[in-house]
Amino acid sequence: LHGGPTGCHARVWDAEQLNNQELVLRYTFAYYEEGFPGEVKMTVKYSLTNDNELVIDYRGTTNKKTVVNMTSHGFFSLTGIGTPTPSQLDTILTINADFYIPIDENSIPTGEIRPVEGTPFDFRVAKPIGKDIDAIDDQLAIGRGYDHNFCLNDGEGPIATAYDPESGRFLEVFTDLCGVQLYTGNFLDGTEIGKNGNPLIKNAGFCLETQF
To answer: Is 192 a catalytic residue?
Structure first.
């Protein structure tokens, strides 16, 4: 589900802060370290721009034919901080995608591509994340909410937007990749602690993980 037995998020990466706005992380995965062939040298650069953007750039080189599909699993909370951290189900979301990919009982994509038309997965028109999250749907039951890849439509502009009516915070997501995974924090149970010591409860954050 997350790459290999451990996952690269459990590795200690070399960090280099280039300046006040740029951070570079580097790690070399040994041959079959995560079950994949080839030594893979990964670099991830995080940049905060003067235009209020967070830019994440991934680079990977390998000495054998292998599979690399990096993404960011960062959680967003547009409502801000509270005790516990507030639910994000009232966040207004759009995703520019006509199709999504179903998952099996282990949250692995089945290979099928389904239209979002007439399903709870249709975010082409803005709606609260939680509007249809409790609908009777086999896919929502498996994921305990949204945990699915959306096949992005071609075109200019953001592939997703999110807006919190109470705080006024607005998020736009741009990518040069063809998919985005929407995850709604379905397995957060309060054991993980967020900012200011606040427990992270179910749906306290949402992820938009751009990927190929």
So the answer is: no
Q: Which of 73, 112, 117, 166 is catalytic?
A: 73
Plot region of 73 (φ>0 → left; ψ -120 to 50 → alpha; else → beta): alpha
Q: Report how far residue 139's alpha carbon sits from residue 116's, in angstroms, rounded to the nearest whole number.
A: 12
Distance CA 164, CA 82 (A): 15
What DSSP line would sit under 123-134, residue for residue?
-SS-EETTSSTT
- pLDDT one-digit tens code per residue, 181-208: 999 999 999 998 888 888 889 999 999 9
DSSP lists the bridge partners of residue 168 as none
Inter-residue contact 209 to 73 (CB < 8 Å): yes
Is the distance from CB of 40 to CB of 29 less than 8 angstroms?
yes
- The H or E element spanning position 141 is helix 138-143
Q: Is 88 exposed, middle or buried (0-12, 13-18, 19+ CB in 10 A)?
A: buried
Asked if 184 contacts 201 with a C-beta cutoff of 8 angstroms, the reply is: no
Task: State pTM to two decimals.
Answer: 0.92
What is the number of other CB atoms lying within 10 angstroms of the CB of residue 151? 16
Is 209 among the catalytic positions? Answer: yes
